[in-house]
Specification:
The protein is 30% helix and 20% strand. It is α/β, with parallel strands linked by helices. α2 crosses α10 and α4 packs across α6.
């Protein structure tokens, strides 16, 4: 059965000593305080085309915040160490090595949904991967570096409720209030990557001289083999923006170049300003954290149209991508409106991140190391801007069940 690891600043239920779930408020010790664990989710129904979004959560394990351990230098072992060890065991499994996907969910998401949705996304990405491996597009096989993904979710205290004119702004306040928590996660990831690099340098015989460093670099001794990717959906991009800024202003980060923490960063259905990449205090520094940042956009996204019009927030990043000309080498925008039928009955045009194989195929090629301009299915439309087409999979037949009759502009589940 699939597993998903989680990092959260939500309030533990019923208490912090023996939590069995997490609620819609900040941790009782404060908004920056994190708890971590793992959930086991039911397998999707056999023979189904898509993994559904409501897979049953079979088990939930919350790692102790800390526990005595005489083997540790300070006599304590922390939950974050247990989390890292569990993810490492899965990612470095020689039988099935994996990469890691960190996911930040959006508005109106209860804790169980925060576990279910990224599992659905990763399962459907894996289905697309298997299809590409079995029947590769002519001339553009999926690179051998492609791997399954281990999902990890950062879940912040979204209310998971819809009260008109209240829930959206309540979630937006909590999203901003989660900035220190996400910054702490980034700090832990930075420190982990630094420790891993130090170990590999030592194993490669690095003695502090440029020559020994070049030797280790040439022999590939500095490569750990596991890539870490990040995906942010809808209001999760607002969380990411504020977490990025809090990370930039951490005492151990100020005055230093931002570390590269991720290989690929995917922004989907981004509910943030379309000017976010124009300002240093918004998302402009984000490309420093990754090899490549991709903004997927849909001009007809009904959820973002609702956000723009009823909340008077202006044009959203997930509608047409960055407002200005993209002049950053590792930032790109991909218009996906031509392949929206591949999302099935998603009439909002907002859920493609977890149920559109054309989008998944594009992500897979990037995660496997394909340069953005060479990813199949992309037609260039401008500087680092593309339009996705049906080069990979054939468009599905029209779905007669797809209807806008049930669309409630007050609610969308990102």
């Amino acid at each position: 059965m699939p597993e998903i690891y989680f990092v959260t600043n939500r309030n533990p239920i019923p208490d912090s000593e023996s939590p069995t779930s997490f609620g819609p408020n900040f941790n009782t010790k404060g908004a920056p305080f994190l708890r971590v664990g793992v959930a086991t989710v039911a397998d999707p129904p056999a023979g189904s085309e898509w993994a559904p979004d409501n897979l049953e959560i079979k088990a939930l394990k919350v790692y102790p915040d800390q526990r005595p351990d005489p083997k540790e230098p300070d006599g304590k072992r922390y939950g974050s160490q247990d989390l890292i060890a569990a993810i490492e065991k899965k990612a470095f499994d020689p039988a099935t090595p994996c990469d890691v996907l960190l996911f930040i969910h959006g508005f109106d998401t209860k804790f169980p949904e925060a576990l279910q949705l990224p599992v659905q996304m990763v399962l459907n990405i894996e289905r697309a991967r298997q299809k590409l491996l079995q029947t590769p597009p002519h001339g553009v096989p999926l690179p051998p570096a492609s791997r399954p993904l281990v999902p990890v979710v950062f879940t912040w205290p979204s209310d998971g409720e819809v009260i008109p004119e209240v829930s959206y702004w309540s979630d937006r306040t909590d999203a901003k209030g989660s900035k220190e928590a996400l910054a702490r996660l980034f700090l832990k990831l930075r420190d982990y990557l630094n420790r891993q690099l130090a170990r590999r340098l030592e194993a490669a015989g690095y003695d502090g001289t440029p020559r020994s460093f070049r030797t280790a670099l040439k022999t590939g001794e500095l490569e750990c083999g596991v890539k870490i990717h990040l995906a942010a959906q809808s209001m999760g991009n607002f969380v990411l923006r504020h977490g990025l800024q809090a990370f930039r202003h951490e005492p151990t980060v100020i005055g230093h170049p931002l570390p590269r923490l991720f290989d690929q960063i995917f922004l989907t259905g981004a509910d943030d300003n379309d000017e976010a990449f124009d300002e240093d205090d918004l998302l402009r520094p984000l490309p420093d954290l990754a090899k490549q940042v991709t903004v997927y956009c849909n001009p007809g996204d009904k959820a973002l149209f609702t956000s723009m019009t009823t909340k008077t927030l202006g044009k959203r990043l997930g509608q047409n991508g960055p407002k200005e000309v993209i002049n950053v080498a590792n930032l790109g925008a991909v218009n996906i409106e031509d392949v929206l039928p591949a999302s099935g009955d998603d009439f909002t045009g907002h859920f493609y991140y977890r149920r559109n194989h054309e989008v998944h195929a594009d992500m897979l090629y990037l995660m496997a190391g394909t340069p953005p301009a060479q990813a199949p299915g992309r037609d260039p439309t401008g500087n680092n801007r593309y339009r996705l087409n049906y080069t990979i999979f054939q468009p599905p037949p029209p779905n007669p069940r797809s209807s806008e009759a049930g669309f409630d502009p007050r609610r969308y589940q990102p």
